[in-house]
Structure formats: structure tokens, C-alpha cells
Amino acid sequence: MNLQSEIDYFSELRMIDKARLLNLFLHELAEEARGTYGPGADQVHDAMHLRFVNELVHRLTRVIEQMMAEDAARPADDVLLRMLLSPRADKDAERLVFNAYRRAIQGFESFDTTVLMSS
Question: Averaged over 42-67, what is the pLDDT?
């Protein structure tokens, strides 16, 4: 994956599409996190990576809110994409993110554009 091309692609999207892509990413990341626990509440077998996913969800839901509110204080696109897609020392965490991002991009590209009712 070429980080700069991902940053360039993301930066060219409209704000609503950036938020939509991040939402798809969160959905896919939650799917990846299902591998960290079993069917019972006491069957978490990879608490470190479950916590990692929870922290990303926490951060990204705030960013999506900032995008939708057009908050100028939100992280810049390059900062956001570097936070997500830069190589990590923890290769399992990196794999969780990359797998989720790859599926989100594939799902996102299956739509041509976001159409708003008020547009």
C-alpha cells in the first residue's frame, strides 16, 4: 500500500464521503475485532488488540463528528491517514487495520459517489 497515494485519494474526497469511508472502515474494523474474543463475555483471548480497536473507534468517531460539523480543529487528512496506515511495530494490529481498510476501500469504490437528498 502506498501511503501517499491513500492520503491523496482521501484528501480529494468531499467531506461527506470522507466521513462515509471512515464509517465503512469502522464497520470493517469491528469485524476484524471479532477475532479477539469468543462467544462468551468472559472469553476475550486477545485483550490487547480488542483495546487497540476500541481506542481507534473512540478516536475515529470523534473525527467523523468533527467532519460532519465542519470543525476546523479536526486532524488534517494526512495526519489521520498516517495514524491509521503507517507501519506499526505490532504487526497483528497493523494487519487488523490494513485488512479493515482494504475492505472499506473496496466497498467504498463500489459506489460511484454519495448522493445527498438536498443536493
Answer: 96
Average pLDDT over residues 4-29: 95
Helix or strand or coil: residue 37? strand
37, β-bridge pairs: 44
What number of H helices and E strands is found in the chain? 5, 0
Gap between the terminal Cα atoms of the chain: 34
Among residues 45, 23, 51, 46, the alpha carbon closest in space to that of 107 is found at: 23
- What are the residue ranges spanned by the domains of the chain? 3-109
Whether the predicted pLDDT of 49 surpasses 90? yes
Task: Please provide residue 37's backbone torsions phi and psi, each rounded to the nearest 5 degrees.
Answer: -145, 160
User: How many other CB atoms sit within 10 Å of the CB of residue 104?
Assistant: 20
d(CA 5, CA 20): 19
How far, in Å, are 51, 66, 79, 99 from residue 7 at the CA level?
A: 26, 18, 9, 17
Helix, strand, or coil (residue 44): strand
